[in-house]
């Protein structure tokens, strides 16, 4: 038999290939046929799209391709194991499977089809996830997870649960009640979620575009993807028995929960960061594999998959295209200066091939107010951007990575400023509140609407921090409660791989690990998070990375402090599927999107563009000229 020869696809007709998996018993030889179909959104062809792990390409297995079955096609062992489980005994089953339906030896076809993969999974009749054969009591695990999902209904915006019906057991949605899982069941759940499929990069595009009818297959057992996703929220929100070690499982739950929430929370850069721990064979896919997951206002960004470019070129082009398309510098917030950074990659380009980066500070403020980027690429790796110097670093103390609760408590004590319990803060309020806030980057449920129940609360966190600062033996005589444990989890998540900084002006904050005295905290137009910049001998600047500085996160460097009676909050707008900064008037109890520091006349004086907020409020765009008229010292930074 001869190797199968792929007839070329007609790209003008939007052709793809599908395979027909022929009938047979489980042990019968695998037989398939391959045909071309036209992929049209209005009348897509019928097929199921398979999402699976390729595995090793060594020792491939030949299958028969027909008719008349005179050709063979070599497939990976993982796929050869899956297909007998997926084959029907009584009828042909039609699939789209990337390894078979794309000619992997044709680089041009692969680049074109990669761009189309989002539509392929979006228009599939169903996406089938193959986790592998049954093992580690996976059948029992899927059964109890299916039962759990039938008891709850999840609001993914707030990550809260409610009973699925009046007959549902209310304890399942009660975050205070313990999960009734044995140690063996916890181990089996952990084994299931540690299967290789969850760690692959491309699968997240495949499952998140699948709609609500995707199915997860493990051997002969199945569970709906939506059911599995609901159980992840439940398991992450509730507590297990204290006698069971769930540290590894909790980390896995958070990882999968974050991965499955791209459609609600993540920006382009955020998606790339969240998938950084996922495995892929080509680092260029860090960009290409997520293009179909972008939010609607980012989807038409002009990035074409091109595997002939270097990785550095692909990453730099992605940043420049995003700046041009979004008129923001949000991508720069994902940069982090490291000693082993590739020499050909500017510091304003995130090195997405490196996975050992700190947790990003998305949604922790809007330091640049309503501004758009004033930036220009000057060639030779130099990006010119407008902004202001807000502070100069006086000291930087690296957080010592300790994940155990006792270690996190020790670090809180070590890093706490002198007289933190009794001092006021330079930006207003108390120093203890500022310290509590920066250690978890102000992620308090009190400041979100709807309340993010998984976040700690400010009052409880303050009391906890004061207690451990004032009583060195607190841990030896007091058990850590669930709310305190949650605060410590967030402290570790955001302090790990960062440094605690104090500035010459009296600010405190969290900054990149390699921050050092003399570095400058800068706010660039169009970048919602402050950046630490380091001036070089040539009057140019390196991007050290993003930072959280209490008192500079809500436009203070541009517009001044908020009036005493106002507090910044974040509101979720269901219509646009996004979070927006808003302002609570503590005297009236009213919340508004309009920044109280923007005067009515600003809309007339400012000749820049405007943006419309969810409540219909029209706010003027903050430009360099607008800021200069208000006396702000705007300067230009040449970033290298």
From TrEMBL:
Kindly give the Pfam families that the UniProt entry links to this protein: HET, Het-6_barrel
Q: Which InterPro entries does the record cross-reference, listed alphabetically?
A: HET (IPR010730), HetReg/Transcr_Mod (IPR052895)
Segments forming domain Heterokaryon incompatibility: 47-206
This protein is called Heterokaryon incompatibility domain-containing protein
Organism per entry? Imshaugia aleurites
């Amino acid at each position: 038999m001869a190797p199968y020869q792929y007839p070329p696809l007609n790209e003008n007709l939007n052709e793809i290939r599908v395979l027909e998996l022929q009938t047979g018993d489980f042990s019968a030889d695998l037989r398939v046929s391959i045909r071309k179909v036209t992929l049209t959104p209005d009348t897509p062809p019928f097929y199921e799209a398979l999402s699976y792990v390729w595995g090793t390409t060594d020792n491939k297995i030949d299958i028969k391709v027909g008719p008349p079955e005179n050709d063979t096609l070599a497939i990976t062992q993982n796929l050869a194991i899956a297909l007998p489980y997926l084959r029907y005994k009584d009828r042909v089953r039609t699939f789209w499977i990337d390894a078979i339906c794309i000619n992997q030896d044709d680089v041009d076809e692969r680049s074109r089809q990669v761009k189309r993969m989002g539509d392929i999974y979006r228009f599939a009749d169903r996406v089938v996830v193959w986790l592998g054969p049954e093992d580690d009591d996976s059948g029992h695990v899927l059964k109890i997870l299916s039962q759990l999902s039938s008891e709850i209904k999840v609001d993914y915006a707030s990550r809260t649960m409610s009973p699925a019906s009046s007959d549902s057991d209310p304890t399942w949605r009660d975050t205070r009640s313990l999960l009734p899982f044995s140690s063996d069941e916890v181990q089996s759940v952990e084994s299931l979620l540690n299967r290789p499929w969850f760690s692959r990069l491309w699968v997240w595009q495949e499952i998140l575009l699948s709609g609500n009818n995707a199915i997860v297959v493990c051997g002969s057992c199945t569970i709906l993807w939506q059911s599995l996703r609901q159980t992840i929220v439940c398991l992450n929100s509730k507590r297990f028995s204290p006698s069971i070690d769930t540290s590894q499982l909790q980390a896995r739950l958070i990882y999968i929960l974050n991965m499955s929430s791209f459609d609600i929370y993540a920006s382009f850069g955020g998606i790339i960061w969240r998938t950084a721990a996922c495995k892929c064979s080509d680092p260029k896919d860090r960009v290409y594999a997520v293009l179909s997951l972008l939010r609607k206002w980012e989807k038409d960004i002009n990035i074409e998959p091109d595997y002939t470019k270097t990785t550095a070129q692909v990453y730099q082009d992605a940043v420049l295209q995003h700046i041009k398309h979004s008129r923001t510098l949000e991508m720069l917030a994902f940069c982090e200066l490291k000693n082993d950074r590739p020499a050909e990659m500017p510091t304003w380009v995130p090195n997405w091939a490196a996975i050992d980066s700190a947790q990003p500070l998305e949604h922790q403020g809007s330091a640049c107010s309503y501004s758009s980027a004033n930036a220009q690429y000057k060639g030779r790796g130099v990006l010119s951007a407008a902004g202001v110097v807000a502070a100069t670093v006086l000291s930087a103390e690296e957080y010592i990575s300790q994940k155990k609760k006792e270690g996190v408590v020790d670090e809180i004590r070590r890093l706490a400023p002198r007289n933190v319990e009794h001092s006021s803060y330079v930006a207003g309020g108390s120093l203890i509140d500022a310290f509590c806030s920066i250690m978890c980057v102000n992620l308090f449920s009190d400041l979100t609407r709807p309340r993010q129940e998984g976040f700690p609360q400010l009052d409880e966190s303050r009391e906890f921090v004061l207690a451990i600062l004032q009583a060195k033996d607190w841990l030896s005589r007091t058990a850590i409660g669930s709310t305190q444990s949650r605060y410590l989890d967030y402290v570790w998540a955001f302090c790990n791989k960062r440094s605690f900084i104090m500035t010459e002006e009296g600010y405190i904050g969290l900054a990149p690990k390699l921050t050092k005295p003399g570095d400058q905290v800068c706010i660039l137009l169009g970048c919602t998070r402050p950046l630490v910049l380091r001036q070089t001998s040539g009057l140019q600047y390196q991007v050290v990375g993003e930072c959280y500085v209490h008192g500079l996160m809500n436009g203070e460097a541009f517009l001044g402090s908020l009036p005493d009676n106002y507090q910044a909050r974040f509101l979720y707008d269901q219509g646009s599927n996004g979070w927006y900064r808003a302002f609570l008037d503590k005297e009236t109890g009213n919340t508004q999107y309009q920044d109280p520091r923007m005067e009515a006349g600003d809309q007339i004086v400012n000749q820049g563009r405007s943006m419309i907020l969810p409540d219909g409020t029209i706010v003027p765009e903050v430009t360099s000229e607008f800021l200069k008229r208000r006396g702000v010292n705007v300067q230009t930074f040449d970033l290298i």
